[in-house]
Amino acid sequence: MILHKFKNSADLDRAAADLIISMVRAKPNAVLGMATGGTPVGLYQEIVKTYKAGLVSFASAKTFNLDEYVGLPVTHKESYRNFMQSNLFDHIDIKRENTNVPDGNAADVDAECRNYDKMMFEQGPVDLQLLGIGGNGHIGFNEPDTQLSRGTYKVTLKQETREANKRFFNHIDEVPTHAVTMGMGTIMQAKAILLVVKGAEKAAILDATLNGPITTLVPASLLQTHPRVIVMTDCDVDYKVSF
Ligand SMILES: N[C@@H]1[C@@H](O)[C@H](O)[C@@H](COP(=O)(O)O)O[C@@H]1O
């Protein structure tokens, strides 16, 4: 793992955007793994600025999003499809058919999960997977548990995750109870991973991710076993593991 620490969130957003932009400049048909939540909003704005300045094109790029709520209409402002359209896709030249978000309203969710993994297998691997982290160490929506899923699957969200995400809704009762998420194996197939962690309240879970034991109880700790992970943070946390 490589850890880059930033003094503020704006510098972090710019550096994270630059890494994604460099990937697409070097490989215009790159496959990008995208994330949602509050964390990537600023870096998506930086990508849009660079696109509008004519300095990058996503015309040949493809994307696969990590996850989607089950049961929210795609038109709901908090559906992750809608999030991606309004924060990024509608403002750059990516082709809609090249963007993939799991369908949380599929009649057969298990078939949707298998199909998502199949598409990723056929069109991947992901060149660069962007990740945020939940306060409990989840990545995508892979919640802490005694065992984790390899492939894309339907997950029951933990109460703490619903509580954390209720800030985006009017009331906790509106936060979906389930989601479809790439599994840990799906995420770990990415050639490179960019983990972005913002805010002092995430310092402890980032420390556990970087320096703690590899455990399914902190799903992000499995990233210690991936050969190419870049962590960008504004937290005051050091990488203490040495070989
Ligand atoms: N499923 C998403 C994750 O992909 C995200 O990384 C995490 C943290 O979100 P935030 O960036 O808003 O703290 O929780 C969400 O629920």
TrEMBL record:
Pfam families: Glucosamine_iso (PF01182). Pathway: Amino-sugar metabolism; N-acetylneuraminate degradation; D-fructose 6-phosphate from N-acetylneuraminate: step 5/5. One of its GO terms (molecular function) is glucosamine-6-phosphate deaminase activity. Keywords: Carbohydrate metabolism, Hydrolase. Residues 14-227 form the Glucosamine/galactosamine-6-phosphate isomerase domain. Its EC number is 3.5.99.6. The active site is at 67 (proton acceptor), 136 (for ring-opening step), 138 (proton acceptor), 143 (for ring-opening step). PROSITE patterns: GLC_GALNAC_ISOMERASE. It catalyses: alpha-D-glucosamine 6-phosphate + H2O = beta-D-fructose 6-phosphate + NH4(+). It is an enzyme of class 3 (hydrolase). Catalyzes the reversible isomerization-deamination of glucosamine 6-phosphate (GlcN6P) to form fructose 6-phosphate (Fru6P) and ammonium ion. PANTHER family: GLUCOSAMINE-6-PHOSPHATE ISOMERASE. Belongs to the glucosamine/galactosamine-6-phosphate isomerase family. NagB subfamily. This is Glucosamine-6-phosphate deaminase. It comes from Deefgea tanakiae. The lineage of its organism: Bacteria, Pseudomonadati, Pseudomonadota, Betaproteobacteria, Neisseriales.
